[in-house]
Each structure stands twice: as structure tokens, then as C-alpha cells.
Amino acid sequence: MNHPQIKITVKNFGTMTAELYPEMAPLTVANFLKLARESFFDGLIFHRVISGFMLQGGGYNEQMEEKRADAIRGEFAANGFKQNTLKHGRGVLSMARTSDPNSASSQFFIMHAPAPYLDGQYAAFGKVIEGDAVIDQIANVQTGNYGWYMQDVPMDPVVIESLEIISE
To answer: 73, 138, 152, 161: most buried by Cβ count inside 10 Å?
Structure first.
């Protein structure tokens, strides 16, 4: 199977190339590619960075204004979707969500280190195949709190300049 590929260009950090796995999470991949075609992610930030865990982005701009997209069904085992067996290892892309299993929309995270306790609980859908050093660079930025409600926010914005589809 040919896997779609995307390139994430992060201002002052470089690029990451990832392949997406529609056989694991078809709705998730289709939604992610739709948003990428619409340039949804361009100018958004990685708003939550935890070294040794993950980098989360796709929902806020540099001014910390939320950008929303429609929610989709959570494609993971705990939500009755058994075909997604992708493990949350280093470099894996997965969908962020609230406690509602069907609340994933545009926010995604990239694993900095394995987190097996997320397996079957979140919709993993891709993996970084080039640009591993960029993950480490972002994971090591200085973070702090943004107001009382958001922790682990980079002190200097980590901006997604573009998220483009290389191949479908």
C-alpha cells in the first residue's frame, strides 16, 4: 500500500516528513489530509510540548487563539475501533482529544518518546520518517504556563509554517 506523505515545516526548526496510515485510521487520515489541503495548519503552533513525551499542535495560533475544526469518530480500540494497532512509539502521530472519545478534530501530537499507555486510547495515524532531530529540538524548548488553564506552552512560539501533502 502506498502511504500518503506530508511535510511539516516548522519556523526556525526545519522540516519533518511523515507517512500516514489509512489502513489504521481511515477517517482520521482523510480528515487530516482534508485540513492540510485547506492550509488549516499553516501558521498554527505546537502549543504543548513535554520533553520525553510529546509535541501537540494544530489548534492555536501565535496569539493563543483557538482554531476549530469539526470533530470526528475516535479510531482506537477503547472506542470500539479494533483495526488501529499502531503503537505510540517515538515519532508516531496521533490525535488529541478531550475525555469524549469522539472529540478529535485538528489537534495532533507527535511522540517524543514511547508511551504504551496511550495505545488503544488515542487514534495513532502516522509516523515521522525524516526529521527526527526536529522532534528533539522542539521537545527541548523552554516552556511555561499560559494563564491558569494551559501548561507546557513554549515560551517562544513554535510555528508550523506549512503542513503540505507530498503524495497521496
So the answer is: 138
